[in-house]
Amino acid sequence: MKFWRSIPTRKKGADYSGPTAADRLKSYFPEITGLVADYAASHPHQVTEGDTKAYDYFAAHYQAELAPEHGLDGTFYLHPNATGAASLGKFWADAMAPNLGP
User: Fold this and answer.
1) Which of left, alpha, beta for 73 (phi over 0: left; psi -120 to 50: alpha)?
2) Can you give the pTM of this predicted structure?
3) DSSP E strand boundaries for the chain
4) What is the share, in percent, of the chain residues with pLDDT greater than 70?
5) DSSP 77
């Protein structure tokens, strides 16, 4: 069992062959950074990158804060349980707070 074990474990009606879910998710990070940079040029102070810390946190705490789910090929961890939802909410709030008014 691993944090965001390979997507083929999920098998919910789509073809997820290829990279693992973790690899696929991490491949989005530079794309998000680039998108934010593009919008910063055309729409200053309107788009921010948001949280960049939760992924590493959940990679270290997945068994305590993500719900085990059963796929056809084994158990995977993707969605937060109640404790994980509280942690994720704190990450999001901390990322948004600097951009909110007084």
Assistant:
1) alpha
2) 0.70
3) 66-71, 74-80
4) 80
5) E
